[in-house]
Each structure stands twice: as structure tokens, then as C-alpha cells.
Amino acid sequence: MTKILLTFFIVISFTSCNKKQNDEILLFDFDGRAREYIIHIPENVKHNAALVFVLHGLGGTNKNMREYTRMDMVANKYGFVVCYPQGIGSSKNTIYTEKGSSFWNVGYEVHKNETVDDLSFLKYLAIHLQKKYNLDPNKTFCTGMSNGGDMSYLLACNAPEIFKAIAPITGCMMSWIYESCSKNDPVPVFQVHGTKDNITYYEGDEENRDKWGAYMGVESTIQFWVDRNQCTISIIDTLLDVDKSDGSYIIRQKHANGINNNEVWFYKVINGGHDWPQSWPQDSGNQDLNTSEEIWRFFQHSMNVQNI
Fold first, then answer.
1. Can you list the pairs that 281-286 forms with residues at least 24 positions away whose Cβ atoms lie under 8 Å?
2. Are 198 and 273 in contact (CB under 8 A)?
3. 3-state secondary structure of 241
4. Do residues 149 and 172 touch, judged by C-beta distance below 8 A?
5. pLDDT score of 192 more than 70
């Protein structure tokens, strides 16, 4: 009887703690800084659940990214944990950004004097959360929007032992990352990108005309990951154009049968802009794809095929 009562007490305490943490900015001490993050733990989460990092874009916040993606709703439905880390504010003004504008350090020219090590921060935060909440180290993934998508590519190249798959949305692969990304095992990649993105150009900027730093075009990036994963099967089709009023539609590419059964998915949003399809509020951008749910489907698929 004592054992049953004790177990009941622990469950109630754990649930209450989860609800409290779901609404709080938490701190993780790293490299002399108190770094912020928000964590969402569904009530139905089990031990050895998956962990998904969601990274905001340049100048964004983790709170806004949480609302924008509505990833909490997907986590509640499928039973995984979500972490929304916060980038550090820039140390000075530039012609592109204001002082204090939050960012992930992927080597933009405007951040050339910044020293924050976001690669290590995200790696060690992931390890910390895996241990603290008994999450499966083989089920940790990362997605992100724009600058957060760029950071996802850096993690895929330099921390594949931690982040087992990535899903950059409107992100790019900086040329220096592209050129150095051949040392470690490849990971599954899922990218969504609009052909009329006026922020992260679909064709890239390899000549660095805009002075952000050279970055690869989307199709070159996808081909890089198809080659790295040695995918031998490709299927291309078109998603149902559910909302014809949004002015866009999606061509879907799935490249399969790669190393460790890895796959590379690319959803090309024809006439799409710098958007997360079906973001909140639903006032612009493509409405044919629930991006957040599709990201989880990709991560879940990556877990399943690698266990075959």
C-alpha cells in the first residue's frame, strides 16, 4: 500500500512540474552564460521519448517560434518533447541588424566578430535534456526557420552523433559549412523552401552579392545530401493544391534507400515565399501543407527505417 501511494505521489508531482516548466523560461549555464530555453512536455510522454529542437529565425524569439509553428500541438498528439532554445543577442549594430538582435552563429559576415558557440550550446543542452527527462539519445532531432534552418545544417554536419535528422525550413547551407561537411556520417534531411523566397534565395548567393556570406542554392544543397546519403531511389509527385487562393503549390521529392536507410525529402513550394506553410496565424503563405506535422512524420519515419 505504501508503494502504491508513493508511486501516485511521484506521478502527480512529475505532472505538476511538467505543467509549470511548459510555461517558464528555463536557464542552462553554458560557457559563462545563462542560456534560455522553453520546454514542452506532453502529459502522455513516456520514458525514452523523442526530443525535437525548434530554432527561431534571425531576430526572433523562442516564444514567438513556439506560437508560429504550433509544434506543441503535434507533440501532444504523438508524445514527444519539444525544446525551443533562445539565441544570443548580437553585440553591435550592423547595416542589416540592430544591436541585441537574436541569432544563431552560423558564420554570417555581419556576425564575424561574434564569439558565441551555438554549436556546442545546442549539443550540450540536448545531452542535458536527454538525461534529465530520460529521453532516447537516438531520437533527438532539430528543425528551424531561416537562420534556425541554417543552424540545423551546421548541427547535421558537426553533431550527427547528437542530432539524428534535421528539417530546415527556408534555411540554407552556408558555403563554408558545405565545403567542410564531409567528415561525419550523413543524416536524413527534410527541407521546405519557396521558389520566390526573397530572404533566403532559392538559387543561393554563392558570390556573396548581398554581403551576408556565401551560401548554396537549394537544389545544390539537396543534391549534396542525396549524394552524401547515397540515396538510389527518387520519387517525385505533386501535393494536392488544397487552397488555390494562396497562389502556390508543392512539388514533393523523396529520395530513399540511402546509407542506414536514410532518406532526403524536399518540398518545393512553387511561387512560395519565406514562409513556414500553415504557420500561425494563417494569414499568408502556402496552406497546402501542415509543416509541423510533416516534420514529425519525417523524424518518425527516420526512426522507423533506421531500426529495420
1. 285/246, 285/248, 286/194, 286/243, 286/246, 286/248, 286/249, 286/250
2. yes
3. coil
4. yes
5. yes
Residue 153: name the closest of 190, 116, 199 by CA: 190
Asked whether the beta carbons of 113 and 158 are under 8 A apart, the reply is: no
What are 241's three cell numbers? Answer: 493544391
Q: For the chain, give percent helix, strand, coil, nearest 5.
A: 35, 20, 45
On whether the CB atoms of residues 89 and 101 are closer than 8 A, the answer is yes
Q: What would the pLDDT profile of 135-163 be if each residue is shown by its tens digit?
A: 999 999 999 999 999 999 999 999 999 99
List, in order, residues 6 or more apart from 110 with CB less than 8 Å away. Answer: 90, 94, 95, 96, 97, 211, 212
Backbone angles phi, psi at 96, to 5 degrees: -105, -35
Grid cell, residue 202, equals 532559392
Contact between 87 and 56 under an 8 Å Cβ cutoff? The reply is: yes
Q: Please tell me whether the peptide bond between 85 and the residue prior to it is cis, using omega within 30 degrees of 0.
A: no
pTM of the model: 0.91
**Using one digit for the tens of pLDDT, what is the confidence trace for 3-39?**
233 333 233 333 444 555 666 899 999 999 999 999 9
- The enclosing H or E element of 85 equals strand 81-85
What CATH homologous superfamily does 24-306 map to?
Alpha/Beta hydrolase fold, catalytic domain (3.40.50.1820)
The number of C-alpha atoms within 13 Å of 236 and in the hemisphere containing its C-beta is: 2
The HSE-up count of residue 239 (CA atoms within 13 Å, CB side) is 25
Residue type (1 letter), 305: V
